[in-house]
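Section 5: illustrative case.
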């Protein structure tokens, strides 16, 4: 997943596999080893949740981000600030939370 493409989806809806609205894409982080993490603001919450981009699809036709994770997993994911650089400990915590390999490159 290229960060230039993600930039076009900032503030767009994030939906689950069933098309249910989860929240909005607020930011993303691209770490040195090539991992991409999304900053998703779930509906009704103020905090940004860190979500691995593993399995994420960008739907240009509907201008939304499709995530393969259940809404409750996103709502309980690690919290972080979009204005800060993502630390490796938080990447690992988010990857563990979603059961995603930390060595995977997007």
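Designed sequence:
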């Amino acid at each position: 997943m290229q960060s230039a493409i993600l930039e076009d989806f900032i503030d767009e809806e994030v939906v689950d596999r069933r098309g249910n609205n989860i929240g909005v894409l607020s930011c993303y982080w691209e770490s040195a080893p090539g991992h991409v993490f999304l900053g998703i603001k779930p509906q009704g919450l103020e905090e940004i949740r860190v979500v691995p981009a593993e399995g994420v699809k960008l739907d240009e036709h509907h201008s939304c981000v499709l995530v393969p994770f259940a809404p409750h997993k996103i709502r309980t994911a690690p919290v972080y600030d979009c204005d800060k650089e993502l630390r490796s400990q938080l990447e690992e915590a988010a990857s563990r939370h979603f059961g995603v390999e930390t060595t995977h490159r997007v």
